[in-house]
Amino acid sequence: MSAVAPFPGVSFFHKGQRSPLIASMGKRLVTEGCGKYRTGPGPEWTQVDQQSYAAWQRKIGFEGAEANGIPGKTSWDRLRVPTSSSVPGGRVASPVPGKSVSTAYRVKGSRWSLGYHTGADYAAPTGTPCVAVLNGSLVRHGHDGSFGDFLVLRAQGFDYWYCHLSEQTVKSGSVRAGQKIGEVGSTGNSTGPHLHFEKRPAGGGFGSDVKPTW
Ligand SMILES: [Zn+2]
Predict the structure, then answer these.
(1) Which residue(s) pair with 169 in the sheet?
(2) Number of Cα atoms under 13 Å in the Cβ half of residue 103
(3) What is the rounded distance in angstroms from the CA atom of residue 191 to the CA atom of residue 129?
C-alpha cells in the first residue's frame, strides 16, 4: 500500500508546473472516471488536468466556483493521490509535509557561528513527521551539541541534513521520497521545535552549505 500525498497547496498548481505528483494525480482521476486525457496524464499541469479535476470536484458534490478544477485540500484529500515516493525519481514538496520555511537560508545573524544561517528552518510541533525529500540513502546519523540528533540523506550527489530531531525513525539504508525518517524536535542548540534542513555537496563539512533546494 502506498502512502497518500499531503495537499501541496493551491499555489502548486499553475501553468508550467512539472512534477511526478501531477501525473500521479491524473492517474487517480482516470481511475475515478474523471480523466479527460487524450494521451494519458503527464507530469505537467495543463488545461486538461484542470478540466479533469473539475469533473472530480463535481463528482464529489462541489458546484460553481468550488468546481473550478484547481485542487483544494478537501477534494485533494478525498482523491487519495499516492505520494510521489511511488513514482521513480519522485520528489516531495517539503521535508516536513504541510510546513513551509520559517527561517530562510543565508539569513544573517550573530546567533549562528558563521554569521549566517546555513540551512532552512521548518517550525513545527515536536513529533511532526520529517520525510526524505528524494529517493536516496541515509549515510549518517548521530548527535552533536549544535545540530542535536541528526540524520544525513544522500541523494543525487548531495547530502541533506535533518537536524534537532526528537526521533530518528530510520537511521541507515535506502529510503524513498516521502518516506518518514524522523520527527521534529528541539535537540542540540535550538530555541524551539523545528527542523533545520541543510544541503551540502556529498561528504561536505560545515560551511560547505548550498541553497537547500531538491
Ligand atoms: Zn536552522
Answers:
(1) none
(2) 22
(3) 19
User: How confident is the model at residue 143, as a pLDDT?
Assistant: 97
Ligand 1 centre to CA of 175 (Å) is 23
Segments in 60-171 forming alpha helices (H)? 73-79
CB 197 within 8 A of CB 159: no
For residue 207, the 8-state DSSP code is T
- Taking the complete model, does pTM exceed 0.70, yes or no? no
Contacts of 196 (CB under 8 A, 6+ apart): 119, 120, 121, 147, 161, 162, 163, 164, 190
The C-alpha cell 536516496 sits at 136
State the Cα–Cα distance between residues 167 and 36, nearest whole angstrom.
44
- Whether residue 1 is predicted with pLDDT greater than 50 in this model: the reply is no
Distance 35 CA to ligand 1 centre (A): 42
Other CB atoms within 10 A of residue 127 CB: 11
**Domain assignments of the chain as residue spans, ordered by start:** 10-86, 91-214
The neighbouring-strand residues paired with 158 are: 155, 201
In the structure grid, which three cell numbers stand for residue 59, read together? 463528482
The fold of 91-214 is Glucose Permease (Domain IIA) (2.70.70)
Q: Report CA(194)–ligand 1 centroid distance (Å).
A: 8
User: What residues does the ion ligand 1 have nearby, CB within 5 Å?
Assistant: 119, 121, 196
Q: How far apart are CA 77 and CA 71, in angstroms?
A: 10
* Average pLDDT of the residues in 127-152: 95
Residue 51 has which C-alpha cell? Answer: 478540466
